[in-house]
Amino acid sequence: MALEQELSALAVDIAAEAGELAHRRRAEGVSISASKSALADIVTEADREVENLIRDRLSAARPGDGFLGEESEADRGTTGITWVVDPIDGTVNYAYGIPSYAVSIAAVSGEPDPRAWQALAGAVYAPALGEMFRAERGGGAWLGDERLRVNSDLNPAGSLLATGFGYDPATHAPQLALLGRVMPLARDIRRIGVASLDLAYVAAGRLDGYFERGLNPWDHAAGVLMVQEAGGIAVGVDGGAPSRDMTIVGGEQLVDRLAAIVFGEQGIPT
Ligand code: IPD
Ligand code: CA
Q1: Any domain includes 267
Q2: What would the pLDDT profile of 239-249 be if each residue is shown by its tens digit?
Q3: pTM score, whole prediction
Q4: What residues does ligand 1 touch, defined as CB less than 6 Å away?
Q5: In this structure, which of 20, 53, 101, 118 has its CB flanked by the most CB atoms within 10 Å?
Q6: Would residue 153 count as lying in a domain?
Q7: Which atom from ligand 1 is nearest to the alpha carbon of 94?
């Protein structure tokens, strides 16, 4: 089996087990255990328990690989491959009982930095929705047996776009101003609250495009690969790779238009 296939199969297996654990813990009731970067940026006991499970399974299967996760310390490893993990993406939905949340697991090679790495494989699993998205470099993006394709044509009715907002209240006004500038391209806007699922949905053609500033590497590592493997484009600042500064994805024509607005005269929100 090619390395990418092997990594993708492992990501899927572990995401399935981790997702079931998150789902079970949700049914038992969730308590918020701390706030992180801002009061609204919460972590639950389940986030930590699920990340520990993923980390244990990965180190048993591939002991030399590095690890970069939301809830625990990074480890560079020795193989040049790093696992980039969000145990529960959409923690606020999870805490409120909204079923849109996901486990996101990606394997990348090279520097563990989204501007430098090459994503090899990824899985995004939404246990409460029963959907496992997966991708491997050169092997496509999939939901079960269905091969995913981004919507490449511009819809004359406007594009169905998703975005997100940072937890820091100081970022809200500039991000809303940017949304106002993007609105003429949109037929409507979704704020699902799960960056990895926004990206998987763009890959699946359920959304035409998505943009967000402030994403962490684990929010987009798996999903950006899905978009690319589904024939879409993913850009960050200066036409570079997506990063915390900006992530824009969709079909090429839409991404060009979004990028012209986002990086236009008024610049990206700070
Ligand atoms: C958040 C979600 C949200 C996005 C935020 C992320 P978390 O991740 O993906 O949709 O807007 O930027 O931080 O905190 O739920 O893992
Ligand atoms: Ca998270």
Answers
A1: no
A2: 899 999 999 99
A3: 0.96
A4: 70, 86, 89-92, 164, 166, 193-195, 212, 214-215, 219
A5: 101
A6: no
A7: 15
